Structure formats: structure tokens, C-alpha cells
């Protein structure tokens, strides 16, 4: 039980941090916003918190319990990010309008794309995130500082960050969650595949 409680806290905190980074990005945009988003991943690494794309590249494929742990982390991340979206929902009209300038474009891109397009692009995000997290844990911070802006500027979906955009769109624009489901699931699968590319291609000496 203690392990489950710990994992719950760590996954919630990771979601809060990614939500915080996404909030900063939507309020700032551009180059500055993309780099501010990296604050979220820095926080996850410093706190040793549990992020879906930080665990997906190292979990045991053949262990059913580890699959359950991965999905539990994703659920915790979802709850943490959604808590951050509430900050937008209760913010001033000016803040909501500014956030929606960025959010509406991202949501439109995801929901108007074919599922396979989102999945393929999400593979790219997973690959970048795995590199950023792997070397970030070794204190090579440039991979984090540059990796996050790279996937943002390339328009690559991150399933945890996208929760924030969908949540804001839902709370402030009355969007339909049904429209978010397919691109979100596609991003989850794509991120999972991408996170595992480095270890699949790593040659053991």
C-alpha cells in the first residue's frame, strides 16, 4: 500500500509539473514559451517523479504488473494535469483568451489529423523525451533544455501535455471529450513506441 501511495504522489506531481509547463507555454508562446515548458520536465527530474514518457522507455515489457504500473502513472499524470487546467478555468477572461490562442490551434491540429498521423508524430516525441529523460537523469541538462522545444516546434504530440490542451478547450470552449479520445490514445501509443526506440537500437557491448 505504501508503494502505491508513493507512486500516486509521484505521478500526480509529475502531471502538475507538465501542466505547469504547458500553462507557461500557452501564456507566452514562441521560443520563450517553448523553453519555459522545459521547466516542467526539469521539475519531474529533480523531484524524481513518475512521468509516463519517463517510465515508458524502461519498464519491463513482459511483466504484467509493470504494464499496470505504467497505466497507473498515466492516470496519475492525467489527474495532475487536469488540476492545472482548473487554474485556467478560474482565471480572468484575459488569461483564458490568451491561453486559448495557443490551445485552439493545437487542439484543431490534433482533432483534424488522422489517427495514424498523430501516432507517427507521437513516436518522434517519445524518442525525444526518452533521450531528454535518460540523459537528464545523468545531469546532462542540455538534452532537457533543447529536447522540449524541439518537439514543441515540430508540432509533435505529447500525450501528457495534450491533456492540458484538451482540458482547457473542454473547460473554456465547451469542446467535446469524444473528439479528443482518438488523437489522445494515438499519442499514448506513439509515445510508448518512440520511448522504446533508444533501447531497441542500443547495442550492448
SSE topology:
Elements: H1 2-28, H2 30-47, H3 52-55, H4 64-89, H5 93-112, H6 115-136, H7 142-153, H8 159-173, H9 177-201
Largest sheet: none
| Residue fraction in strands | under 5%
Give the overall silhouette. globular
Structural class: mainly alpha
- Average pLDDT confidence is 94
Total number of beta strands = 0
H/E element order? HHHHHHHHH
- Return Rg in Å: 16 Å
User: Spans with pLDDT under 50 lasting ≥5 residues?
Assistant: none
Give the count of helical stretches.
9
> Gap between N and C termini, in Å?
39 Å
Helix content: over 70%
Keywords:
205 residues; mainly alpha; 9 helices; 82% helix
Describe this structure in words.
It is a single chain. The chain is mostly helical. It contains 9 helices and no strands. Helix 6 packs across helix 9 (177-201). The chain starts with a helix and ends with a helix. The model has no long low-confidence stretch (mean pLDDT 94).
Amino acid at each position: 500500500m505504501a508503494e502505491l501511495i508513493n507512486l500516486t504522489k509521484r505521478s500526480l506531481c509529475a502531471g502538475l509539473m507538465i501542466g505547469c509547463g504547458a500553462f507557461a507555454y500557452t501564456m507566452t508562446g514562441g521560443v520563450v514559451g517553448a523553453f519555459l515548458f522545459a521547466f516542467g520536465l526539469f521539475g519531474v527530474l529533480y523531484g524524481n517523479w513518475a512521468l509516463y514518457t519517463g517510465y515508458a522507455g524502461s519498464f519491463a515489457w513482459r511483466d504484467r504488473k509493470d504494464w499496470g504500473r505504467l497505466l497507473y502513472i498515466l492516470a496519475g499524470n492525467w489527474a495532475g494535469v487536469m488540476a492545472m487546467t482548473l487554474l485556467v478555468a478560474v482565471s480572468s477572461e484575459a488569461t483564458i483568451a490568451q491561453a486559448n490562442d495557443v490551445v485552439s490551434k493545437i487542439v484543431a491540429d490534433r482533432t483534424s489529423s488522422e489517427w495514424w498521423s498523430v501516432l507517427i508524430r507521437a513516436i518522434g516525441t517519445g524518442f525525444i523525451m526518452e533521450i531528454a529523460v535518460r540523459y537528464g537523469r545523468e545531469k546532462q541538462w542540455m538534452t532537457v533544455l533543447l529536447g522540449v522545444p524541439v518537439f514543441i516546434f515540430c508540432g509533435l504530440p505529447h500525450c501528457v501535455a495534450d491533456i492540458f490542451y484538451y482540458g482547457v478547450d473542454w473547460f473554456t470552449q465547451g469542446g467535446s471529450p469524444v473528439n479528443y479520445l482518438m488523437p489522445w490514445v494515438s499519442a499514448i501509443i506513439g509515445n510508448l513506441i518512440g520511448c522504446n526506440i533508444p533501447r531497441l537500437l542500443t547495442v550492448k557491448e
